[in-house]
Amino acid sequence: MAAAELALGLLDGAERDAALHRLIREPAFAGEVERWRDWLAALFAGWPAVAAPAEVAARIEASLDARAPDGMAGVPAAANDNGARWRMLALATSIAACLLLAVTTMLMLRPAPAPVRVPVAVRIPAAPPLIAAMAPTGKGTPVAAAYDPASGVVRIAGAVDVPAGRSAEVWAIEGSAAPRSLGVMADATRAEMIVPAALRGHIADDTVLAISIEPAGGSPTGLPTGPVVAAGKLKA
Prior knowledge:
236 residues, alpha+beta, 8-stranded antiparallel beta sheet, 5 helices, 22% strand
């Protein structure tokens, strides 16, 4: 409101001094004053200049004379120092009232700003781990396995009988698809392997994990070549 009043020229005295100080020190306030001046300039540009009829000026002067202090009515403008002031004040007040009404109307008709959409991050819960109890195909004890879909890590715990010079290799079998190698167990009793990213989409509930005995370093063909010593389905 202070910016609008300064742009309209309605401030005087201490209020005008304070507004002018803000104009110098506060860039945001100066920008607001300039924005009001632009609006008012456009408003003035849209109004054609029209000369006031002579009888209107005469009626204003007569009204001012009627309200003048005793002894001042009828005194010529040159002799009455307050006459010109009253006329200017009345004219400025009328113009300010018209401009304020016009600006208020423009603000009321201005469309409401579009609502700001703030993105909200939605946290998707992590998939639960898949567990498998791989039963031995011969002698031995079950081998436990767990697959973490979030990290792509398979953990295996349990003793696997691996002959000397051979390796135990872990396979994932999805339905009737061919087995996919998950890697060679470096330790016959405990292993942790990171599943390649390309294979993680093929490991899900009911996928079979199996361990086969292969030549040292793993199968040379990409498929199991030796006996399967343990197998079991992953379950959530």
